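re: ur question from yesterday

yeah so i grabbed the chain u mentioned. its 147 aa long if i counted rite. heres the sequnce exactly as i have it in my notes:
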Amino acid sequence: MAGSSVAGLIVGTVFIVIFASATITLIDNVNRAQEASEVELPSPELTLVSADWTWDGAAGEGSIVYTITNSGTETVNIAHIYLSKDGNDPFSCSTLTWDSSPAIYIFPGETIVATESGLDASDDDIDDNPQTVFLAVFEYSLAVSVT
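ran it thru and got these structure tokens back, copy pasting raw so excuse formatting
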């Protein structure tokens, strides 16, 4: 009878150790998940200074020249900046033609100029002669009227 009591104590102790180990592992995983979810996104400030529509009658197409200034303190990757004309599907600024060397970043205080060309005003395409352009980067956004 004493042997079964000792066996019961051993089995009970093993279960307690397994339960305690599983609890410690669970707590450690919960703490890691919480740390991973506390990632802060950058908070850049960009100014879409202007969006100018131009029409080339000889070529039969229009273009929009965007002037963007980084008025914040953070460097922003151009691929993270999105534009949308009149609320339509957004597109990345990295697809535009830059007036300077291929832009990858826009630094604090820097102003860049980019052109979107090949827009046909006689075709009723949504990209033609837009009225408003929206700029968004992470949680920051603004709009400007097209002139």
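noticed a couple things. The domain at 46-145 is CATH 2.60.40.10 (Immunoglobulin-like). also The longest strand covers residues 46-56.
anyway ttyl
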